From TrEMBL:
PROSITE patterns: EAL. It comes from Funiculus sociatus GB2-A5. InterPro entries: Cyclic-di-GMP_PDE-like (IPR050706), EAL_dom (IPR001633), EAL_sf (IPR035919), Sensor-like_sf (IPR029151). Residues 9-262 form the EAL domain. This is EAL domain-containing protein.
């Protein structure tokens, strides 16, 4: 949920009654964009109160005032109605445009009439419920049955439902099973600086996979720079929203609001970024395979009893190698796991020690896929080895030792964070 900083004069609580009675609201909208389609897909409505002298009052302040006088439900309904009315002229210019409406949590448990009032507004304006997304911030709702009833009612009438602030500290992922949302809006706390943070990327990617499994879309909220936009696109986000594209503001259906230039620029940069990364990854893989080939040349003239000595010499020549070990043709480890001591974390090696001779690796992909698929080399997916905590890939290859016995060399190498993700 995006909330712009709006100056106000700290209005007294009583002014909220005047705002509601006289409908002193000004709807602002923030675009939700598709980079792949190079277009604005929807608009999130965020109401501003009109105070004395025409000053604008932020949504947080408005609902804070309404809470004092117990008028949240009336304010929430007015916000939705005003947003829908203003959206009508935008929808007329673009019938495919989608309106995203925020519902205050208290509305859920108080909405005894289901979606009747909003449905009346939508029908009166001749809007299609399919063009309306109800955003629910479920983390503040304790009554899961009331929430489910509300969601079912909206869905039955054709509205779309989004869960807001997914990934925020207080969000409950178990609610996804109850609500079955059409859209997951991933909170800005996960998106901020995501291009530099591996763990955020993996969480984001998991949420994208979850959304795909349940047939939903993912919207990345809080995009504030091009690097974040490119990162979430690469991780699978369907739609993007944030100050990078536009702050919430009054939108004129008759003129270009400047979104298209940013969208096109981001699309072009994303394409260039992907092409450059493919080229860089190819170069990096060639570098890795060159290291593996150099190791194999040493090992083909070495006997099994000398593997440990040879591996200790090899790892000293290659700072990019995290660890190295050898398996026999059945997947059993026949050498020590020789590690780069500069990167080991002693506190982790107690719980997660390096594998020792005799360890069975036969269910590891770098063993059975290498053999059964008859690859010359196998390169694993990215992972973080527990003893070192660094981002790595493992490259494996077959070789015959000095006695012509078949073995598998497994080399874990440090990955370039910016390149691999």
């Amino acid at each position: 949920m995006q909330v712009a900083n709006v100056d106000s004069d700290n209005p007294p609580p009583c002014c909220i009654r005047d705002i509601i009675q006289n409908k002193r609201l000004q709807p602002h909208f923030q675009p939700i964009v598709s980079i792949r389609r190079r277009d604005v897909i929807g608009l999130e409505a965020l109401a501003r109160g009109i105070g004395e002298g025409g000053s604008l009052i932020s949504p947080d302040t408005l609902f804070g005032l309404a809470a004092v006088l117990d008028t949240i439900l009336d304010l929430d309904k007015l916000c939705s109605k005003t947003a829908a009315e203003s959206f009508l002229r935008l929808h007329a210019a673009n019938p495919k445009l989608i309106l995203f409406l925020n519902f205050h949590p208290s509305t859920v448990v108080s909405d005894l009439k289901g979606c009747g009032e909003l449905l009346d507004v939508v029908e009166h304006l001749n809007l299609n419920p399919h063009n309306i997304v109800i955003e629910i911030l479920e983390s503040h709702i304790d009554d899961i049955k009331a929430l489910s009833r509300m969601v079912d009612s909206y869905k039955q009438h054709g509205f779309l439902v989004a869960l807001d602030d997914i990934g925020c500290g207080h969000s409950n992922l178990d609610r996804i099973a109850f609500i079955k949302p059409d859209i997951l809006k991933i909170d800005r706390s996960l998106v901020q600086n995501i291009h530099n943070e591996y763990h955020k990327q993996q969480i984001f990617k998991s949420l994208v996979m979850l959304s795909e499994k349940i047939g939903g879309w993912v919207i990345a909220e809080g995009i504030e720079c091009q690097e974040e936009a490119i990162a979430v696109l690469e991780l699978g986000a369907d739609l993007l929203q944030g100050y990078y594209f536009a702050r919430p503001h009054a939108i004129d259906a008759e003129r270009d609001n400047g979104f298209q230039e940013t969208i096109n620029d981001t699309a072009n940069k994303f394409k260039s970024h992907k092409l450059a990364k493919i080229k860089a990854r190819k170069s990096k893989q060639e570098e890795r395979l060159a290291i593996v080939d150099a190791c194999l040349r040493e090992l083909t003239t070495t006997k099994v009893e000398d593997f440990d000595r040879q591996l200790n010499e090899i790892i000293g020549h290659y700072p990019s190698v995290e660890s190295i070990h050898i398996l026999d043709e059945t997947g059993i480890q026949v050498s020590d796991c020789i590690c780069n001591l500069r990167h080991l974390q002693p506190q982790k090696t107690i719980i997660f020690p390096a594998p020792v001779k005799g360890t069975d690796h036969s269910l590891k992909e770098y063993y059975y896929l290498l053999l059964e698929a008859q690859f010359a080399y196998y390169t694993s997916e990215l992972y973080v080895p527990r003893p070192s905590g660094d981002l790595c890939v493992t490259v494996s290859a077959r070789f015959h030792d000095a006695n012509n016995q078949l073995f598998i060399l497994c080399v874990a190498m440090y990955a370039d964070f910016a390149l691999e993700i």
